[in-house]
Design brief:
63% helix, alpha+beta, 4 domains, 5-stranded antiparallel sheet, 517 residues, single chain, 3-stranded antiparallel sheet, transmembrane
């Protein structure tokens, strides 16, 4: 087909051509920038995202700093805490000896990296990366990674806050942060693993079993440890304003923050398990040496008289009394305190068991969500869908629920109920209609064959008629119409429970029989 050339002032008019070329050039420049970004986003695989989070959160930098330091065993054994548990200086010295050189930097941080990868959640990890890329996230990562370099400033900080205590708002924020990160729970688990690792040493000291020490740690020293964590948070984040701390707390209270914190703590726990296994090998040598010393002392007792054999050992002379006098009142008071403590422990255990029983009942009554509503949420609200997935995984994990405090469980249940309410609103907006009445309020009025399929006529309580096909949604549980025949409509109701399980029920909507039949 021929086209007619336009002329302007005696020359061919090329204005349209120039505009078209310019538009093509602009589009090419946009594509040149956009396509690589799109390709980069698509090529972000699991390991790549985990590596980004590992670096942005400060773990990589912290690893480099720790690798250049000499990590004293007291960093892990916490002699002050062991002393509070009633361990002697000699006992604590042996524990430090067992853990000397047990920490391996590369092994520990590689284990943390694997924990992030093994618990991979694409939605949560992208949101966590977005947070740590923000200016506040970068500051938090810098403070966390450089924390090991600032240990020397801790004593002077304690003196300052003793003279000038922080205000109420600051303390409340740090309290929320400790709860959001479950710091004291994690710390007790770590200390319990260490006490169980060095339990063979208890046979040489009158301190009781490892489980007795762990119970004392949980029951008597928990509040003390929690206070220490709050002070530690005050020190660690002293450079942040209250507003920044509140934003940080909100992150750790969010699903992605809880996911990141849990992965981080599981990585720490796995790294510490490796350290404990290495300590167990050193422990065997220490125990062997202690047994040998005891055997040597038994030999000395058989050969030398009491006055001479103590020249060869560092044991106390039995003729020197251990105590000057017996304080009967103090002993009776201690016995009564021990009795009262055992009573309180028993009451706490009973209260905890009662709460766990009520918790199981409460979980069993948590609201479900119609599967078709769940699908609508998945299509239209990815964040809400991710939150529902998070709670399904949480409520399935009975071990994790047992490790949570009463307040944490109550809060999580409340959050889940709010999510279900929100999801119901999404379902009503996206796929709801007048047909979501109870099936008993719907009336099957007739059938129509349109040459391709059977269509049912259903009347709602407002006397309006609606056409129903296979695939239509009926009832408050958004049941899917599976079949329509001459007698009834077959409806399949799928319900997703609080653990993410799909339960199916078949319902029918039949023609109303005449009264005389």
């Amino acid at each position: 087909m021929k086209t007619q050339t336009q002329y302007l002032n005696g020359f061919p008019d090329t204005r349209g051509v120039r505009w078209f070329v310019a538009a093509l050039m602009a589009a090419w420049m946009v594509l040149a920038v956009w396509v690589p970004e799109l390709q980069a986003a698509r090529t972000q695989n699991k390991t790549s995202l985990v590596r980004q989070l590992f670096v942005l959160s400060g773990s990589q930098k912290e690893k480099a700093l720790v690798a250049r330091m000499t990590m004293e065993p007291s960093v892990f054994t916490n002699p002050n805490l062991l002393s509070s548990l009633g361990l002697s200086k000699e006992h604590i010295t042996l524990i430090n000896e067992v853990y000397e050189g047990a920490f391996n930097t590369n092994e520990f941080y590689n284990t943390k990296f694997r924990a992030l990868r093994d618990g991979f959640n694409r939605t949560h990890i992208r949101r966590a990366i977005r947070f740590f890329r923000s200016p506040l996230g970068r500051r938090i990562a810098a403070l966390d990674s450089s924390y090991v370099k600032r240990w020397g400033e801790y004593e002077s900080f304690l003196k300052r806050i003793t003279a000038h205590p922080p205000d109420k708002k600051r303390l409340e924020l740090m309290d929320r942060l400790e709860k959001a990160k479950s710091q004291v729970d994690y710390d007790i688990k770590f200390k319990a693993s260490m006490l169980r690792t060095v339990a063979p040493l208890n046979d040489f000291f009158a301190v009781g079993s490892a489980e007795k020490l762990v119970m004392k740690l949980k029951m008597e020293l928990r509040d003390h440890q929690r206070s220490l964590h709050i002070i530690d948070n005050l020190f660690r984040y002293k450079a942040l304003s209250d507003r920044d701390v509140e934003r940080m707390v909100r992150f750790y209270e969010s699903p992605e923050g809880r996911w990141y914190n849990r992965r981080d703590q599981e990585g720490n726990a796995a790294g510490i398990s490796k350290m404990n296994r290495r300590a167990e090998r050193a422990l065997k040598e220490v125990v062997r040496r202690l047994k040998s010393t005891k055997e040597d002392f038994d030999t000395l007792k058989a050969v030398f008289a009491p006055g001479l054999r103590y020249m060869f050992t560092d044991k106390r002379d039995p003729f020197v009394p251990q105590i000057d006098e017996v304080n009967i009142e103090a002993i009776q008071k201690q016995m009564q305190e021990d009795k009262d403590r055992r009573k309180r422990m028993k009451e706490r255990m009973e209260e905890k068991q009662l709460f766990r029983s009520r918790m199981d009942q409460e979980l069993g009554t948590l609201p479900s969500i119609p599967y078709e509503v769940y699908r609508a949420v998945k299509r239209t609200d990815p964040r809400l869908h991710s939150d529902l997935e998070y709670y399904a995984a949480l409520f399935k994990n009975k071990r994790e629920l047992r490790d949570m405090s009463k307040d944490e469980i109550v809060e999580e249940i409340s959050n889940y109920k709010n999510l279900i309410e929100k999801a119901s609103g999404v379902g009503s907006m996206q796929i709801g209609s007048d047909l979501q009445n109870e099936l008993g309020q719907l009336k099957l009025s007739g059938l129509i064959w349109n040459g391709q399929e059977t269509v049912a006529l259903v009347e709602t309580p407002d006397t309006f008629g609606h056409t129903i096909r296979v695939g239509s949604l009926l009832g408050p549980r958004y049941g899917v119409v599976e079949a329509i025949d001459q007698e009834k409509i077959t409806i399949i109701e799928r319900i997703r429970d609080y653990q993410g399980n799909i339960r199916t029920q078949t319902r029918y909507l039949e023609f109303t029989k005449p009264a005389d039949e």
